[in-house]
Amino acid sequence: MTNNSSQKSTLGYFRWAFIVTFLGLILGAALGWQTTGTIGGMATVFFVCTVLAVLEISLSFDNAIVNANKLKEMTPAWQHRFLTWGIVIAVFGMRIVFPLAIVAIAANIGPWEALVLAAREPAEYARIMNDAHLPIAAFGGTFLMMVGLNYFFNHEKDVHWIAGLEKLMARSATIKGIEIAFVLALVLIFSSFLGEEEASTFVHCAIYGLLTFLAVEVIGGLLDASQQTMSAAAKGGLGAFIYLEVLDASFSFDGVIGAFALTQNLFVIAIGLGIGAMYVRSMTIMLVEKGTLAEYRYLEHGAFYAILILSVIMYVQTMFHIPEVITGLGGAALIGISLWSSIRYNKKEQAAESAQAHKELHA
């Protein structure tokens, strides 16, 4: 990361996000004009792109904080790779290629046919995507739940926000596999509320989500164990890179599915969510370079609680719909409360230090 990060203004971090927003909204307006040929249609697509970008940003506050938490452990070379190639994969891979892949698999057609379907029959494309929501929610919800629990079930964790609960989880971390047992129990509970066929799909996809998380952890562990034989540029980087990409995929599941409630046009969705993804990248860089996570001690806690709530919401959505605005506002509220708690803690610490200095001065 750059050495002059302390002199860089907050707005400076969002320069590229602003540029992409400007270009994306112009492209959205042009797409609206091309598809409808009216000023009203152009304005509608422009508005939908804006709303999708805001939706993505609101859903991704916790994503940026978790990214920053992982990035601070990576070498500068791998940080740069994630923030360049990683964002390309996030924007184009998860917002365009991934939905096409889901439709191609679900409809048993080729990728090109899926793209043609998205362009010519958006309603059918949206129907197939919505039908695929249950397995996606089971997979993504399980992966995110393991990410959240893995943060709290850590016997070395000594900073606690909700002290009673977090101390209990930290102590329980000495019981091997407790978080896996917790997730599997929750999967069985939720599957019991579904029909036989849906329950089978839910359990299978949840297990795949769990195995994906464990596989990423194993890869990271193997890379860490073999650091002595790896080049400096690769140390601690590839495993974390893969982890962050799968994490971003899990976060984007809900946003991509929810976007179809606003529009059935894949290209409008890609523009709106792509704009939002650029703000996630900018937030991630700012958090890493400014050391914000170290400055606000409970910010990470709020993000990981938000992840746990999102994972449960994804499970619940297999039974009935929960508006994405509730998901986004809920996560943002938790992060806001954790930020407020951090500021209060910092003020108390500063007051205590001032009192101690005053006492020593007059001793």
UniProtKB/TrEMBL annotation:
Alphabetically ordered keywords of this record: Membrane, Transmembrane, Transmembrane helix
Annotated transmembrane regions: 12-33, 39-61, 82-112, 132-153, 173-195, 201-220, 232-251, 257-281, 302-320, 326-343
Record protein name field: DUF475 domain-containing protein
Taxonomic lineage of the native organism: Bacteria, Pseudomonadati, Pseudomonadota, Alphaproteobacteria, Hyphomicrobiales
